[in-house]
Design goal:
The structure is a homodimer. Helix content of chain A is about 40%, strand content about 25%. Chain A is built from four helices and six strands. In chain A, strand 4 and strand 5 form a beta hairpin. Chain A is globular. The interface between A and B is large, with 38 and 38 residues. Strand 6 of chain A pairs antiparallel with strand 6 of chain B, so a sheet runs across the interface. The structure holds a DNA duplex (25 and 25 nucleotides).
DNA sequence: ATCAGTGCAAACCATTTGCAAATTA
DNA sequence: TAATTTGCAAATGGTTTGCACTGAT
């Protein structure tokens, strides 16, 4: 019961596999391009629809980059966390640090601001690219 | 010397005035709409070009919202700081808290991540809308 | 046999750009 | 007048949608 629709299709498997393979943010266009090489191609609209599908199920996380383009990465957004993005290799590291949440909370006292949500993003160079 | 072009034109004055009037993020379309009421209208492309102009001079700050639309607010981005955005009235409060910068720095030790930049955004309800 | 998923092309929407006319210095 | 700025319309580029067809259950 409660099992919502979810056909297992080739496009979904291909896209999921691609995202699972690398811990970084991909744009829809990037995913589409990558799949062109593979045997069975996937249309760009299917890429978008699949990403939306995965997003709804909480299987991937999305972020909009500076240019306004949406990008997606495989990481369970269940637990609230932040991202550290390596600007060299693009690697994404999940950062779940209670200190940060505590800090965010202190905003309330300092600025009289009732916090509902917060977002932090760190960019730099990861251990490997440093 | 060093005085780059900078004509004082009506569109620039109108847009600057509008942004200065309210401490919140405006989209280009919103600004354009607002100026339609005023006596002298301004084309949407001029709104975009003016925003770009102000951005280059560091007179405004920009952010891309969840939908991918760019929004702009009047605040001097000279000092690094973050924004607390009231989700009721949209008011933007600059948050310059050294504690946060320190926290961001600690990322280096904790995750072996060499930090180049970071971004934090808080949304909730401001003192007035709480 | 159904209902969900796909491809394609067209539609959308925010943003950008070319160019001639208008404006500022 | 020389250089910048504006308006308009057309071009972009990412994302969405309608619809007939294909594929999964």
């Amino acid at each position: 019961m409660g099992t919502r629709s979810a056909y297992v299709t080739k496009p979904r498997e291909q896209i999921t596999a691609l995202l699972r393979a690398e811990p970084r943010f991909f744009s829809a266009a990037e995913i589409h391009r990558r799949l062109e090489d593979e045997a069975s191609k996937v249309s760009l609209s299917t890429v978008y629809r699949t990403l939306e599908h995965l997003l709804e199920r909480g299987e991937i996380a999305a972020r909009v980059d500076e240019s306004g383009e949406s990008t997606y990465t495989m990481c369970a957004p269940e637990r609230h966390h932040h991202h550290a993005i390596c600007r060299v290799c693009g690697r994404v590291e999940d950062v779940t640090c209670s200190t940060m949440d505590q800090l965010a909370e202190s905003l309330r006292q300092l600025h009289g601001f009732e916090l509902d949500d917060h977002k932090m993003e760190f960019s730099g160079r990861c251990r490997a690219c440093r």
